[in-house]
Amino acid sequence: MKHAIVTGGASGIGRAVVIRLVDRGYHVTVFDLTVAGAAEEHVTSIGVDVTDAAAVSEAVASAIEQRGSVTVLVTCHGIRGAFVPALELDADHVRRMFDVHVVGTLLVASAVARDLIDVGTEGSVVAISSTTAFRGWRRQSDYGVAKAAVRQLTENLAIEWAEHGIRVNSVAPGHTRTPMVQDLIDNGYDIAATEARIPLGRLATPDEMARAIEHLAVDASYTTGVCVPVDGGWTAVGK
Ligand SMILES: NC(=O)c1ccc[n+]([C@@H]2O[C@H](COP(=O)([O-])OP(=O)(O)OC[C@H]3O[C@@H](n4cnc5c(N)ncnc54)[C@H](O)[C@@H]3O)[C@@H](O)[C@H]2O)c1
């Protein structure tokens, strides 16, 4: 059976990706901070903090030992930004933002790619960036800048690993109804104003993100080094 790893696969977009990949015939190993929930067919969960290099190395080695080389990796782990002006940002918070999004993505992708290169097998990686990664944004100097780095990281990995047949792309989700966005709403985020700015006039569902991720991960055999906005037209708006 083909083997995929989905980080952040216990919740939100990652969870929707797990369901789609199982449907496509993958055994999915979920990496997330906590392992909970009932046992599911074709899904194995490993508790791991993706910022911990030794833990990532051990978790990837164990997943490969149990299920074979990982030919699809989707990095859906993430934490939300503070939504404060740059002048109010705390240095440790910004470091954590880069650690989780950038270092975490690099560590898991590298561990998976090292094995694929060793055994001479092709594969693909999809990382999750954000619409905040493309332009300047108010109150996004933590999260948005880290997501811009994720976007560039996927370009860099794409050109370094292309010779090994490993494609690397990213998806830039617009606002998606997940626990992360619910937490923002619960903390006073004006979701009605956001929806009014989205050309399609509504938030995305996690499965709408998962469909685009599945396409890049499994079907888009000539696509590498791109970041695809999946945002209801948000990025296309000029003013
Ligand atoms: N929901 C949105 O509107 C939206 C928009 C743009 C980008 N994104 C990005 O999409 C991805 C998924 O977000 P979501 O909305 O599904 O969020 P979510 O909070 O529902 O899920 C994120 C998951 O990541 C896990 N996680 C966090 N830190 C981790 C760590 N250090 N190690 C391992 N796992 C960790 C969490 O436990 C959680 O299960 C994130 O990268 C997020 O930044 C989301």
How is this structure best described in words?
With 239 residues, this protein is α/β, with parallel strands linked by helices. It has one domain: 3-Layer(aba) Sandwich (Rossmann fold), CATH 3.40.50.720. It contains seven helices and seven strands. It has helices at residues 12-23, 53-67, 91-119, 143-161, 179-186, 191-197, 206-219, and strands spanning 2-7, 26-32, 43-47, 72-75, 123-128, 166-173, 227-230. The chain is globular, with a radius of gyration of 17 Å. The termini are far apart. Bound molecules: nicotinamide-adenine-dinucleotide (NAD). Nicotinamide-adenine-dinucleotide binds at residues 7-8, 10-14, 31-33, 49-51, 76-79, 100, 104, 128, 130, 173, 175-176, 178-181.
